[in-house]
Amino acid sequence: MTEVKTSTHSGTTPAQKPSDNELIARYLREQNPEYFTTLYRRYAGKVFAKCISMLGDEALARDAVQDIFIKVFLNLSRFSEQSSFSTWLYSITYNFCIDLIRKKKKISVILSEDVGRIGDEPEVDVPDSVLLEMKHDRLEKVLARMQEGDRIILLMKYMDDMSIKDIADFFQKTESAIKMQIMRAKMKAQTIYDELYASDPIES
Known about the structure:
Low-confidence stretches: 2-14, 112-122
Mean pLDDT: 77
CATH topology of the largest domain: Rna Polymerase Sigma Factor, Chain: A
Largest sheet: none
Strand content: under 5%
Distance between the termini: 36 Å
CATH architecture of the largest domain: Orthogonal Bundle
Number of domains: 2
Radius of gyration: 20 Å
Number of strands: 0
Number of helices: 9
Order of helices and strands: HHHHHHHHH
CATH class of the largest domain: Mainly Alpha
Helix content: 55-70%
Shape: elongated
CATH superfamily of the largest domain: RNA polymerase sigma factor, region 2, helix turn helix motif
């Protein structure tokens, strides 16, 4: 996507950076591409990081970023301020990458088969620190070995800090089912970590 340089005026005090919603409102009102370019610059790196985490291919991730922002650009008038722009953008990003995975592997990307079927048997919750204290490179290797549904739900929760409600809405599942799925995904992450680094303790 071609970047447009924003104009500056020397001798003036820099104005406070406009919020995402202000930029969107200004763009829709004035149709000035500089406003959308500012949004692109704010979020392109974060969207790329999510794409490469999900797709595992740098070239594919770069292409995905361009396609995602074109999609955002074309649908900007449909943005509702019921959620933040970042939440809306990341939802589009996840949907786009899931569709790519489906087409590439010709399979459906879903949560574990037992999601939603929550029994009465007690399950031990793995503390969040299991993920948060892993070295970044080790966490990437652990996530790469997980099923797409489990990997995506952990990225949503711990990379994007999405609420349980937002994740539930995205997958069209109940909040209880999402909480259970996150718990089970953490358990799987712990198991994979133990298999890879059994002789080396988790360290930050």
